[in-house]
Amino acid sequence: MVQEAIISLLQIVIFPGFLFLILAAFFYEWVDRKIVARLQNRYGPLHTGPKGLLQPFADFLKLLSKEDIIPYATDKLFFSAVPVFMLSLPLTALFCIPIINSTALISFEGDLILVIFITTLIVISVFIGAWASTNRFSTVGGMRACLQMLGYEIPLTIALVGPAIVAKTLSISKIVQWQTTGLWFILTQPLGFIIVTICFLAELQKIPFDIPRAETEVVAGWLTEFGGKKLALLRLAEDLELVLAGSIMASLYLGGPSGFGFMSPFVWFIIKLTICILILSNLRALFARFRIDQLMRGVWKYLTPLALLQIILVELIPW
Amino acid sequence: MSSIIKIPFGPQHPAFKEPENFMFKVDGEYVVDVTPRIGYAHRGIEKALEARTYILDLYLIERICGICSHAHTTCYTQAVEEALKVDVPPRAKYIRTIVTELERIHNHYFWLGIVAHEIGFETLFMYTWRDREIVMDLLELLSGNRVQYAMNMIGGVRRDITPEISSEIMKGVKVLGERMKYYKKTCSNERTILIRSVNVGILKTKDAIALCAVGPTVRASNVKRDVRADDPYAAYDEIPFHVVTYDGCDVASRIATRCDEVVESVEIIRYALEHLPTGSIEVIVSRLVPPAEIVSRVEAPRGENIHYLRSNGTDKPARYKVRAPTLANLTALCKMLIGGYIADIPVVIAGIDPCFCCMDRLTFVNIKNDKTWAWEGEKLRGYGIKWYKKQ
Amino acid sequence: MSMEKELIRHLLKKPITLRYPFEKLPPVKGLRGKHVWDSERCVGCGLCATDCPAFAIEMIGKGLTAELKIYLGRCLFCGQCEEGCPRDAIRLTQLYELAESDRKNLILEFKRESI
């Protein structure tokens, strides 16, 4: 009993828990920056560590050592609490994703809904952060962020329910187990995969859905007033969201840690996660930025009907 | 009751590369009114020019702007040569034309990168600035420096073009022309660029003529106005070229105009290099300039550049005035911004290719009753005398 | 989506960044860098000092015994001194890495050797 408790504790804290996820966040930020740099014909991070691997960690340490300025007019309690929220929410969601074998650390009937709910909570944290900053640019950036992220939640949720309908379960672990015997969902629901990719680009606020963070219009959007330790935690939270997005795409559509047998399931999961993040990085380098009215028109006129169409197709075609 | 709030795009803003203040009145996301305030980059150049000799002034004029430096010195040397009544040799005129067109190519690549950065397209920004290195290396080969080339002197040009340099230039501009054709194809086919630039920043033809806009801004509104064709200087009366106009009147047309101008510049450079006349590249001139009043104008990459010189027989100018093209485009810019979205502001401002450091002149503002006025020379001198007496 | 082919093509190319100071481009022939002075040819006319736009050249003495002091911190590297010298005594070389941490090291003093 004590041995099980110790093993669970080690699993939560080290692998595949906190330490592993934070290291994965740093690693995938490096992958993202390096790939975007190579697509743009330049080097990317180069000198810190071999091939620049330690650059995200060095940025994190540098930000931790800077002075933490809290402006006078902010709502101090919420202003200081937002980075902690934003960091803990993706970590919690990542515990529900199966990484080393086909059962996650936390798995119960309905954890898909929990993960989607956590993405909504992330939006609310963004809004609280923008509001508590009481800065003109933060307010405009926060409004834009909420419009965008709440709007794109809807097709995301609808499309993510597609695999759940076919596997007849609302638990991510059971959907992954279903895919070991059935076809991977990317082959049977490709439209859903494309919609989920686009919606995750919007949730992560990457180009072309960069409007809340548009440097040339609002200085840094809702992040403007955060600095020092808070900014370090917020950037780590962004990287964790990237890993979360890639993990959801890899688990629900590409089969998670199930492979063709000759390597351990964990390695298969890493390969699929890397492929999903490469797709997201490539799309980041390919487009210009949409305007806010074009964004909203896109989601209400095109993406939501397409997501509904996908669900109808799932119901009609008996896979 | 409408909610009009004032948003300042202040002197420090990530959208601008130079300090400039625009006070916007917005209603929701629509811009209702805009008031510009200039003067943040005023350096007192016109007064400094009067205290230095003509040879020292050449280098000060070159540093009015970093990107259109050759255009300013061409305008200056033309003015002084006309006052001296000397004629530069034909080879010098051709070399001046070649450097002017190379500078135009440099400026348009630079500008395309800036517009791509403003609309969020980082990849195009990186690609165009990578290709810009080719033309900067060519200019370094020709003149010894990547910006502020100091190729002009009063009476001709300073360095000659050898056959090796000529063949390097031919190779380099061929690559540049092809890359620009590819970027033009991308900008007219890529949907995310089109939705940010078509019907954005509209300037109708009659507004463009009434507000005296210059340069590619007005040529994208279907007005055929180009100093190289209307009032030829240097070697432009001997080199055939087309004046590029488009009739879209929006930012997409301005992109297309500048892309086509680069292709035209490549043809002009090729023609000039093949038909380069032999002979000397400079004439010796005297240091004292006889009294005269000269107006000279050139087509800088951003528009029409006008210089006015009044000389009085000594070796220092009596009065020199510079009118940079962005000053002429400023009122047209305000007209373009009204009625658009806030999100379009950086794109439109970047679309006219602003160079606020060229254009700053001094004006007075009384904040209490919002009056503005300008001082003439005698009042400025009187104020200076009073100030010195107080010391 | 139209730039996708171009993007993928760049994955296989070497990055264009020059890793200065580990990789350097060779300087071009006419680069305007640090000054050298030929004391044999100089006649002390003073045109370089008069015509320098940044007032960076100081002539000490007159005529055939004149010596030069150049303030590199003020110099624009415009080349007017090289251009205006009637005897080609002052020339700009290709040395462009001229940064110093002490301002005194930025003053070039050209003296004549006493015979």
Write down the overall mean pLDDT of chain B. 87
Oligomer: heterotrimer
State the major sheet of chain B. Answer: 3 strands, antiparallel
Approximate helicity band of chain B: 40-55%
Could you name the ranges of chain B where pLDDT drops below 50 across 5 or more consecutive residues? none
Strand content of chain B: 5-15%
Enumerate the spans of chain C where pLDDT stays under 50 for 5 or more consecutive residues: none
Our estimate of the beta-strand percent of chain C is 15-25%
First-last Cα distance of chain B: 55 Å
Major beta sheet, strand line-up of chain B:
1-2-3
* Number of DSSP helical runs of chain C: 3
Order of helices and strands of chain C: HEHEEHEE
Strand count of chain B: 10
Shape category of chain B: globular
| Major β-sheet annotation of chain C | 3 strands, antiparallel
Radius of gyration of chain C: 21 Å
Question: What are the key terms here?
Answer:
heterotrimer; A: 319 residues; mainly alpha; 69% helix; globular; B: 391 residues; alpha+beta; 3-stranded antiparallel beta sheet; 10 strands
Write a structural description.
With 319 residues, chain A is an all-alpha fold. Chain A has 12 helices and no strands. In chain A, helix 4 runs antiparallel to helix 5. Chain A starts with a helix and ends with a helix. In chain B, strands 1-2-3 form a 3-stranded antiparallel β-sheet, covered by helices on one side. In chain B, a hairpin with a 2-residue loop joins strand 4 and strand 5. In chain B, helix 4 runs antiparallel to helix 5. Chain B has 391 residues and is α+β, with helices and mostly antiparallel strands. Chain C contains 3 helices and 5 strands. In chain C, a hairpin with a 6-residue loop joins strand 2 and strand 3. The chains are: A mainly alpha (319), B alpha+beta (391), C alpha+beta (115). Chains in contact: A-B, A-C, B-C. At the B-C interface, helix 2, helix 5 and helix 6 of B face helix 3 of C.
Summarize the structure in short.
The complex is a heterotrimer of chains A (319), B (391) and C (115). Chain A has 319 residues and is an all-alpha fold.
